[in-house]
């Protein structure tokens, strides 16, 4: 009697279906994705993968072979199970070339002589932001990126967050990926000579910065032009002359690679991308542009370079220092004059400094 009762209870448990909570899985667009599913091993394995809602047939296995007669057309040739893993209780589904249309809630139903089980997988698809491009076109700055999923956001920063008069333009391709672009009036002036465009999704974020620096005066002997520094070290650096002529590339993998034309002028490139040139001629006067990038950001910085003789450079520095000394001395003399009424002392200080300055300028000329 007890044995009969146990048999009935065991038979009843065999018909119970155990259900697990949803497991969230993220897969990159265009890659192969594994939807995990486990079960208690046993004979007479039955596996059904179904997309909810609508009970769309994704993949079925029973009678020791795949049963794909009722498989939905969009999954044809894209799904597979590994029967060698069934003995380990593994009924995971491989889904090839994942697309946006594959998103959704999947049910993995498994059955053996030992019982049934339902597992639910919530599949989310993402397409990472590959590149953010920012360019100056006529009187506008334009920022754009494409091949993104889910829907992206775009933010401009010029000194502080800048709200453009028009919302970003968003469109979708046939594969349901997003493209986004935005244009703003060009207005890069000191102190806000840099514009940053940030594009983000719930999965990813990347930004691009465009900087236009003031003219830099350097000697023919040696000149250093700064690259826009990234938050982290760049993976790739490209220097150009007058926007078109390639000077060099530098990467973590391949190292420094200057062109044959510029090799004799390149002294070094810092890890952040700053370029030091040597033994220059007037032909190297112009605009230098640095393009640096890593996984999270890109930056483009342009700097006009003017080359001057070493003596001229020194004279400019001396003149600036002299002007600073004059202003400081006159200020001190004025203070003394105000406090002690010593007019003669004020005049002597002023005249002597002016004479000294004129002497220095005359000596330089």
Automatic annotation (TrEMBL):
It is found in: Cell membrane. GO terms for cellular component: external side of plasma membrane. It is a single-pass type I membrane protein. This is Ig-like domain-containing protein. The keyword Cell membrane applies. It comes from the Eukaryota. Residues 1-21 form the signal peptide. It comes from Poecilia mexicana. Keywords: Cell membrane, Disulfide bond, Glycoprotein, Immunoglobulin domain, Membrane, Receptor, Signal, Transmembrane, Transmembrane helix. It holds the Pfam family C2-set_2.
